[in-house]
Amino acid sequence: MIAQEERELRRVFDHLGSYRQKKKLVATIAACKERRQRLEVGRNNPEVSPLLNEKGAKMTRDEVEDEIRKLDQTLEKAVADQTALQSSSSGSSRVIKNEDLYEAIKALGKVCSKKEISDMIWEADENLDGVVDWEELRAMFNRNLLDKTELEPANLFNVVQFMTYDKKNCGVITADDTMAILFARYGQSQLEMRMKQLFGDSDELSFVDYLERVGTQRRSNVEARARA
Q: Are 5 and 181 contacting, i.e. CB atoms less than 8 angstroms apart?
């Protein structure tokens, strides 16, 4: 594995580790801020932007202030939890769980079954503890890079490889996103061929299209080897 790939792989690992918890915290913080802003507008302009309580009655100023205090407490805790997660991103306790992988893949546009997720975790889970740590992810990635037989399980590898290209976590990669790594891995002599294999006549690939493309290529390689 080249140094650039390892850096990108580490970024992906940090992104996937505790993904579900981080996603929930982001949603909580956003919801609290939005509600707090709405309350402040209503408090400062009660006639223009009236606020209603759970019973549908107009909120009193005391009710508004009380809810703002509760929101601030929730927001403070969520931000503290988020900071703690970020500060521990390089620690040995960071792992990728089934729910993290499921949510991250879903965010890229694909919904997997529980079995599909479990199978992907299994591909890297060398100590069979049900989660994937950094060393396990790194070893899995290396095994697939070195595999010449097409027999190494590659579903998790394909997901992670896409994520190494997709630095913006937007679910779409372009030729420019992949060129540097493909050049470093295969050299100038194979670059054009590898790019053509991956992108065909397109300039970009969605996550789902990418998985289909590399899956088709893998099956073609296996069939060609069987005929040889």
A: yes
C-beta atoms surrounding 159 within 10 Å: 21
How far apart are the C-alpha atoms of 113 and 185, rounded to whole Å? Answer: 33
Phi, psi of 217 (to 5 degrees): -65, -40
Which residues, 6+ apart, have CB-to-CB distance to 207 below 8 Å? 105, 108, 109, 110, 162, 166, 171, 172
Length of the chain: 228
Cα 220 from chain centroid (whole Å): 28
| Residue-wise pLDDT tens digits, 108-167 | 999 999 999 999 999 999 999 999 999 999 999 999 999 888 889 999 999 999 999 999
Task: Domains for the chain: give ranges and CATH numbers.
Answer: 3-13+94-227 (1.10.238), 18-87 (no CATH)
**Residue at 174: amino acid letter:** T
